[in-house]
Amino acid sequence: MIANTLVITIALLLALAFWLMGELKFLIPYRAFLMHEYGPVILGYVGVLSVNLFALLFSVNRRFFLKDTGRKLSHLDKQLREGELPAPSLRAIDEETD
Questions:
Q1: Given this model, what pLDDT does residue 14 score?
Q2: How far apart are CA 14 and CA 27, in angstroms?
Q3: Number of folded domains in the chain?
Q4: What is the pLDDT of residue 24?
């Protein structure tokens, strides 16, 4: 779930960066001055934005894609306690050792 959220966050940040590059073309002559004076501030803002966007997407991901997880896990726990789970196949054991 973290990997999916990270991919979505990076995709959204790249889309935002490309959109901003198109909208702020008039600042190209001042690029060196802006990066020298405001580079750390811009970098800090992008860092805070990415962390907040990741947290928002992670919470949305958990909210909508992990519905009924507790119920599913309690069913699995009940089967484990009663010993009703089938034995693992030899193929699954061989895949784990590779």
A1: 97
A2: 19
A3: 1
A4: 93
